[in-house]
Amino acid sequence: MGPQRLRKTRNRTRDLDQISTDILQPRRLQQHLSTLPLEDLPALGQHYCTPCAKFLETPHALAHHQRSKTHKKRVKLLKEPAYSHEEANAAVGRGTDNGVFRVNPEDVINRIARDRVLAKQTASTKESMSVDMDVEHTDAPQLVETPPVDVEEDL
């Protein structure tokens, strides 16, 4: 089997993404099968292996095919998710910035200055919050009244 024979379109089978679409959407499979002439198919197209996109002669041949190594490999390949266009473009290098990332020094200086101002503001708010917690509010009602305790001083 030479390389020229493999390139011929009459030997072309369905691709994995087409087969996975057939499995997920049975309507697409029926649409594909309706375009094929039944007279030319083995056993008039009754025995079809969807993962392999292959017509077989008898139910015994279909059962034997489903136990075969090639069928199991194809099923294993179909369990993996298909590549998306974004993944394919990223693999080729399209759509990503492969150039050198340049930083504007003024942006860095402005960011550092802004961070310092924010740090000072947060520090001052924390200090004011701690001062507010030290102050007792005498106007607030007490939930439990404590009786005065006489403390004797031992000298």
From TrEMBL:
The UniProt keywords, alphabetically, are:
Metal-binding, Zinc, Zinc-finger
PANTHER family the UniProt entry points to? ZINC FINGER PROTEIN 593
Residues annotated as domain C2H2-type: 49-71
Could you confirm whether the keyword Cell membrane appears in this record?
Answer: no
> Would you say which domain of life the source belongs to?
Eukaryota
InterPro entries tied to this protein: C2H2-ZF_Maturation_Protein, Matrin/U1-like-C_Znf_C2H2, Znf_C2H2_sf, Znf_C2H2_type
The answer to whether the entry has keyword Metal-binding is: yes
GO MF annotations, alphabetized: nucleic acid binding; zinc ion binding
Coiled-coil residues:
none
Protein name according to UniProt: C2H2-type domain-containing protein
Ranges for the region named Disordered are 118-155
